Structure formats: structure tokens, C-alpha cells
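Hey team,

Sharing the Homologous-pairing protein 2 winged helix domain-containing protein run so nobody has to redo it. Sequence (211 residues) first:
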Amino acid sequence: MAPRKEKTEKVSGNEAADTILTYLRKQNRPYSATDVSANLHNRVSKAAAAKLLKELHERKEIEGRASGKQIVYHAIQNSADSAGPEELAAMDASIQALKDETTAAAGEAKSLRAKLTTLNATMSTVDLRSTVIGLEAETQELRARLDSLRGGSVRPVTGEEKAGIDKELARWKKAEAARGKIAKELWAYILDVLPEDVQAAELRESLGLDG
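Structure output:
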């Protein structure tokens, strides 16, 4: 069941006129009779608002001007309330100061966002502790292996031995390349004389060339 709308208590007579006048002074902007009635939540009907606004205008308590097919009304501006040159200058200075503060605050906010992004991209304290524990365990394992090597029969390889091993490795690589070239040439020769009913892939597999 939809909730019942609360009935708005209507006002009339002088109370309605005072309500409209107070509203226009408070808002300090132009309104039509339709706007006034709607903004006052129909406490004053549209027809009553139009009549009262016209009367207040005729009594010069408010200002009114035509706007298209309707008349809009607004409170009379009191010239005594207008700011002088010194007050206007002070207001301008205050506005500029607020703009400067806003710019500075925006710059600081940008810097803080950048710092936050950097912090979010780095490892958390928990992750750092976990990494440290893992590295410490790895260090202990490496030290144990090193101590085992130092205390056993394994001895370091000398420079001369390493040079000899490298030389021997180079010799075998050269031999491997030469044999590979011979094998390639032989296989090309075999393909030239291979019968049509024999598949090259099956022959290579039977000879163990791809093993």
C-alpha cells in the first residue's frame, strides 16, 4: 500500500503575502507565480500567488519584470547593503587567496596520490618478512653446501685445468660439426637413390637417425 501524502497546510491573506515576501528575500532570485507556489509546496495556490505578487509589486515591496508570457518577481535590492570599493577589493583578495589555497591543495592531493600509488606497488611488510625468511633459509642451505665442499675431497678446479677442458670441448664440437656435415651429405645421397615405395621418414626411424 502506497504511503499517504501529507497534506500541506495552506495560508491565505496577509500570512500568505508575508510568506511569499519572506521567501523572495531569502532566495534573492526571480520567480514566477507558478514557481513560488510550487516551491512553497502549494501552501499558496498558483492563483493566489499571482494575485499577491501583483499586489506586492504595486505596493513596490518587490520588483517585477516580463519574461516571455509571464512575469517574474524578485526582492528589492537595498543599495545600502551594496559593498563599497574597499570591500570589493577585500573580497577579490579573499577570492584569490582561496583560489591559491585550492591550487595548492590540488597539487598536494596529486602528490599524495602518486605516493599512495608507489606504496601500493611495493611489497607489504608481511611479504617483506616472508621474503627475508626465505632468503635466510636459502643462505643457510648454500653455506651448508659450501662447508661440505670445503671439508670433503672435492678440490677447486685450477685455471690450467679449466683451459684444458675448454680446449677439449672445442675439439669435440669441431668434430661434431664435421660429422654432422658428412651425415647431411650422405642423407642427401640416400634420398636421391631412395625407391619410390620407401618413405624417407620411415627409413630414418628404422635407422635410428632421429633417436
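The two ends are 84 Å apart (CA to CA).

Ping me if you want the raw files.
A.
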